[in-house]
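Record format v2
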Amino acid sequence: MGLESKLVNDGFITTTVDALAAWARENSVWPMPMGISCCAIEMMASGDPKYDISRFGSEVMRFTPRQCDLMIVAGTVTYKMAHVVKKIYDQMPEPKWVIAMGACTSSGGMYRSYNVVKGIDQFLPVDVYAAGCPPRPENLLNALMQIQSKVGKSRVKDFPDAPELGFEPKQTEVSL
Amino acid sequence: MKEVLEEKLKKEFSESSFEFIEQFGELTIKFDKSLIVPVCKLLKQDEALAFILCEDITAVDWATRTNRFTVVYHIFSMKHSFRLCLKADVDNADNKIDSVSFVWKAANWPEREVFDMYGISFNNHPDLRRMYMPEDFEHHPLRKEFPLMGIPGSVSLPKK
């Protein structure tokens, strides 16, 4: 383990609070399961012992947006549902990320119809698109890992509600 | 069952015409839309018929016909295990038919659905709002002139 070997050799590590917070955040991404249709079944499967999303620290699926920092939009979003999805997304505290899971969420999928939104990126800032109809749990976990690398690189000054620092914070790369 | 239906309807509504069609193993009765409420009341309340279950209400858009729409009622008699289909034409200019939601409570939502999708209004309906589409939507999606991909800008999306 990286952290222990550091402690054995030196007894201390140097880093910034910013980087440490990002590292902690990266390994405990709490998803908001926005399960709207069949993709939600695969999302549930990714939580079971076979695929085990808790290997990535994301097993705490909170069904309240207030405690989440990742929204997994899993399913067909209709125009009527879009307002609900947006309302739930708005209730999540910053910083937050979005996975568009599956073909319907990314592009409307097979629903070439008047009632389905052709891609949730029309009203949400999507970070990762997971391909598939529905995507297999491995694919969702891959999307989660991409989110993790994005979260690990995030710094406080990039967040929309970041306070004014008055100086440019020093960028430190940490590898624990 | 068909003979009983024919006899009862002829007796009750002697001056009106009923068309009996048998297809796909199911009986269909076509009649004028002004009779819809009294006929449905008779079908439900008569002991020998007892069509107590309103399974579905839908409509057909014939596009170019004078009587543009046909409202279709699927009802079921639990007592006799008999399924019946009622059809009534609706004029394009008038576009109205009496509501049967006071006969079967279950007709309330299907009638709202028909109103939403075809724009047929139901007289005396207790709560005629849209069923599926947003309430500020102005079109009726299952009409033939409505494009499959919708009308751009007709439904609102939340702001990014």
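Chain A touches chain B at residues 79-80, 82-83, 86-87, 112-115, 117, 122-125 (CB under 8 Å).
The radius of gyration of chain A is 18 Å.
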